[in-house]
Amino acid sequence: MQLVEQQCSRYLTMFSNCLQEFPQTWHLDCERQKLKLAKCAESEPTIVKIKTECKTEFLRYEGCINSNPVHTHFCLEDYNAFNKCAEKFTDKKTVVTKSMNSSKEKSKEAR
């Protein structure tokens, strides 16, 4: 997460704000912000390495999020697997910890 914050803070803020504004429909309403954040993150070498080396875990997690946009807490196991893989390539957590936590909170609020 810290790599994304350092390199792409503007886009991360835009995406986070959108998630807060549209907790039930973020998967529809925040697509543009999500794509901008992803494009920015793709320019960070460590993130590129993680996406390459942890592709299976990332795709599993991404698929779960896409299948459960309102109930992202269902994806915690996939997230943890991706995070464990990603940690091999950095001494700090580099994946979307805050977004996952905020998504879980939004899911609880929606119930």
TrEMBL record:
InterPro entries: CHCH_domain-containing_protein (IPR052848), CX9C (IPR031731), Cys_alpha_HP_mot_SF (IPR009069)
Domain IMS import disulfide relay-system CHCH-CHCH-like Cx9C: 1-45
Protein's UniProt name: IMS import disulfide relay-system CHCH-CHCH-like Cx9C domain-containing protein
